[in-house]
Amino acid sequence: DIDSATQKIGSQDTTSIKSSLQTALQKGGWDPILTTFNAGTPKVTNSANVGDQANNVTVTETINYTMFGVHDSDLSALIKSNVNGQIDTSKQAMQNDGLSQANFTVISQSSTGAQVNMQTTSTVGPNLNIASLKKQIAGKKSGDVQSIINADPGVTKVLVHYSPFWVNSTPKSASKIDIQFKKSAS
Fold this sequence. Notes:
Layout: H1 2-10, H2 15-27, E1 31-39, E2 43-46, E3 59-62, E4 65-70, H3 72-84, E5 92-96, E6 103-109, E7 114-119, E8 123-126, H4 130-137, H5 142-150
Antiparallel strand pairs: 1-4, 2-3, 5-8, 6-7
């Protein structure tokens, strides 16, 4: 029965095909956009016509599967350009482009290309130059150090710790100053 054979062929699991395309893109240096996986229009051929009497019938179906890929470096540059247009780059910098958590939605697709929408959340924080900061706070008291560092946008809290306990100002030598950054829990 030709119709039955055609239905069985058309209902095959495409997981292995999707995986093969993904691997081929990765081997070619591309990062696959899984949402662009598409099965083309099947082309079905039969060894006998419907209604003809035959002992054996061969039904062949040919489908072209496609998946598109992109270079992460290209997307990262696009994100960076977009984020930098929204911040003061002299005081703030992108800490994480969010690309690893990006979601893609296919807007339109053809056999030669796809238009996709990418949504991601980037993290921006203070653009702090440690060497410059050490020079600014060298020899200062705790309150002055906190004021200087808190002046940068994105800094939420400054803790100053002196050791041993009788020391009450930052060392005058920048090489003796240790600055640590911690990402906010929010």
